[in-house]
UniProtKB/TrEMBL annotation:
Gene3D superfamilies xrefs: Vaccinia Virus protein VP39 (3.40.50.150)
SUPFAM superfamilies in alphabetical order: S-adenosyl-L-methionine-dependent methyltransferases
InterPro entries per UniProt: DUF938 (IPR010342), SAM-dependent_MTases_sf (IPR029063)
Domain of life: Bacteria
Pfam families per the UniProt record, alphabetical: DUF938
Protein name: DUF938 domain-containing protein
Amino acid sequence: MTDKRFFEPLDQGNGRLHAPATSRNRQPIYEVLRDHLPQHGTILELACGTGEHAAFMAPKFKAHHWQPTDLEREHLVSALTWAKYVGASNILTPRKLDVMQVPWPLDNLPSDVTAVLAINLIHIAPVEAMQTLIREAGRVLAPGGILYFYGPFKRDGEHTAASNELFDQSLKLRNPRWGVRNLESVADIALRAQFADPEIVEMPANNLSVIFRKL
Ligand SMILES: C[S@@+](CC[C@H](N)C(=O)[O-])C[C@H]1O[C@@H](n2cnc3c(N)ncnc32)[C@H](O)[C@@H]1O
C-alpha cells in the first residue's frame, strides 16, 4: 500500500501522487546526474514512487529513455499520469519491478541500460534489497554504466547528523529490517559486483549522492 506519510494524492481521481520531498531534492539530484550520467541509453529508475523525479528530469535528458519502476501498482499509475501530464515522450511505460526478484524484468527496452537510479530506497527496505540491487545492477550495466544512490548514509558505522540518527530510529520503529545503511558496506558489496570506488557528493539535508561506475 502507498505510504501516506510520503505520498499525498494531488488531484481528484486521476492517480497523480505528490511527495513533498521531491520538490526539495529534485534540482540538486538533477545537477549531479547531469554531471555523471552516460550520454545515452536507458535510465532505469528503481522505486520511482510518485514518478515526479522522472517527470522533472526526463525532459532534461532528451537523448535518453527513462524507465520508471516500482513495487506498488499505485505508484506506477501515478508515474504514468505524471509522464502524460508533463508530456515527456522519453518516459517509458512504468513497469513493476521488485528489486528483490531477479532477474529484473527488462525485456524489450529500446536501448541498453546505462544508469540505474535508487533514490530514497535502500533505507526503506531490508538490507537484502540493497545487496540484491547492487548485484543485479552489476549484471545489467555494461562497463562505464552508473549505479546512483541518493539518501542518508552512515560513514564508518556512525551517523553524520542527529537528524539522520532520529530518522534511522523512526525507520526501525516502522520496520526493524529497515535502516540507514553504512556507506562503506554499500561500497564493499559494489566492489564485489565490479564497480569502482564511489564518488560522493554531499547533498542538502545531510543526504549523499553516491555514484558507482561499472568497471
Ligand atoms: C521513500 S519512497 C521513495 C520514492 C522515490 N524514489 C522518491 O524519492 O520520491 C520508497 C519507494 O520504494 C518502493 N519500494 C520499496 N521496496 C521496494 C522493492 N523491493 N522493490 C522496488 N521498489 C520498492 C516503494 O514502493 C516506494 O515507492
